[in-house]
Design a protein that fits this description.
By secondary structure, the chain is α/β, with parallel strands linked by helices. The protein contains 16 helices and 24 strands. It starts with 10 loop residues before the first strand and ends with a helix.
Amino acid sequence: MIFKKKGASENILILGLGGIGSYLAKRLLHEGYAITVIEPDSDLVRYADGAMDARLIQGNAMSVSCWKDAHAKNMDYLIAVTDNDAINMLSAMVADRFDIPTKIARVRSQDFGHSNSLLKGEDLKVDLFIHPEELAAQEIVRMIKRTAGDEIIDIALGQMQVMATRITQTSPFAFKNLIDISKTYSEFPFRVVAIARGISTVIPSGEHEILPQDQVLIMADKKDLPKLMELTGVKQHRRHRVMILGGGLVGSRIAELLGKTFRVTLLEKDGKRAEELSSMLRDTEVLHGDGSDKEILEETGLKDIDTFIAATGENETNIMSCILSRHLMAAHDGETQGMQRKTICLVTKEEYLVLASTSGLDIVLNKKILAGNEILTFIRGSELLSISHMHGFDAEVVDLIAAPNSPITRKPLANQTKALAGHIIIGSVFRDGQWKTAVGDTHIHSGDRAIVICNSLYLKDVRKLFSA
């Protein structure tokens, strides 16, 4: 039900305080859920005790006494995200005995949770399987196939689109505020809904000025996207040459998904693994070498590469290799007639997202955050039609419906500046059979569907605005 308000009875039991578990606990606590965590590592429990207002139980996820201490029978969700697949799947079966309605399990193995798997979700009592490596691989492939590295996502069942692009010195938007932009380029409706500058994301007002090197989010009707891309200088074409550094679960899966339609080179440091991949990936050129070595990168044809993907298990290697590859590709740009090259960097720690984004890298992904956002979207599903997280931005794009007598329906947007300013922007409203860009005199009515952009931690405020 879209209008259902989240009640105080919604309790969540999380097993494991690793990367995914701690990220989820913080986000869900901020949104008002009651969180209980079972974690065996005393150091993690001690650290979490000072960092979050959750009920923490030090113990084994396979200990029934810990489940009883956690009041498992009162839980609405189980989220099993320990580092052990078997424990996560078995925990879902234990949760079923405690009558926990919804069970979510993180599983690295691709042998479980699919329609053709020997053991499916109903067999293991799992409502949602989360495969972090598969999510990361699929997301990278989606971005490569979709555009020339400038991210575009479909919202409102594909009728509206949001494009992320970087502003250059020669961009028509550079050094202009949003009011001037809207006056100058009024041929078709579009709206700048977020600006990422350095490590900060701003949900802008009309007075905000766009500067070179800003990464901006722009919302437009799908039919107007080609005009928007032409205006901003974004060229849409498929990538044909991709280099992947690292042949682990993510790297090898990307190669498998891209190999038949793209020219893919995979560089693997471990000789034995490179030999295995060579026989597994028939459509990929697999090379043995160290991707942090400048000479090896150049010898493997980096100058002809469109997209460089660093997907090893080492954060520092990924970041430094992307920085090196960008430097080497820039040195050859004169020979390649302005090819739009991109780097995609995989990291495992949230703090490295900041380091990488301030080092000039194009797209930085964290598979734990991808997995966490997948779980958050699933849990919020009863209240929101859809939610998308934009990479490189501290921003969510939300599709939802205004409940009867909700705060957003009580007055026009221009009179809601206190509730919206700085962190929330209403991008468009569906009315009279079409999406219309929201402006100051737009008045949202009960049952209206809207696209809202907000800083990630203000999602709970968006929900309050649209709930009765």
